[in-house]
Specification:
Helix content is about 30%, strand content about 25%. By secondary structure, the protein is of the alpha+beta class.
């Protein structure tokens, strides 16, 4: 089976409040085959700096409700060192959602590249603001 590139994202939420607006969009990406969720973990840091780590199943029902329809194979890919490093960067009284996803949209081209003997030499994301600025300057 061909597999697309795998990425991780960390999304911070000041004030320890998750907004349900992300979950429906994530669900749409999963349902239309754009991504496949491989791991989803949450970090909470209270006002005193105490940290807790929560898998989706461990969230309180109200917080988990926004992710109820997000399908994916969620499985402990983040290790303790990963979580500790990300938690260290969080400011007190904030939370973060950590996601690892496969870009399933790219699986077929990734497989074709491998079968052709090609090797990915470099891959970098260009921030949207940089692209917007370059496009504006080109006009």
């Amino acid at each position: 089976m061909d597999m697309g590139p795998v990425e991780y994202v960390v999304i911070a939420f000041p004030g320890n409040h998750f907004n349900g607006e992300i979950a429906p969009e994530l669900q749409r990406l999963v349902q239309n085959g754009t991504v496949r969720i491989l791991d989803l973990t949450f970090i909470k840091k209270d006002a005193d700096g105490a940290v807790s780590y929560l898998e989706l199943e461990a969230l309180d029902p109200e917080e988990a409700l926004v992710f109820r329809d997000v399908d994916g194979e969620v499985g402990g890919l983040f290790n303790e060192e990963d979580l500790a490093q990300i938690a260290e960067e969080l400011v007190p009284d904030s939370s973060a959602a950590l996601l690892i996803w496969e870009n399933t949209w790219a699986a077929t081209i990734a497989g074709a590249i491998r079968r052709a003997g090609g090797q990915l030499v470099e891959h970098e994301r260009i921030p949207a603001a940089v692209v917007e600025q370059a496009l504006a300057a080109a006009d």
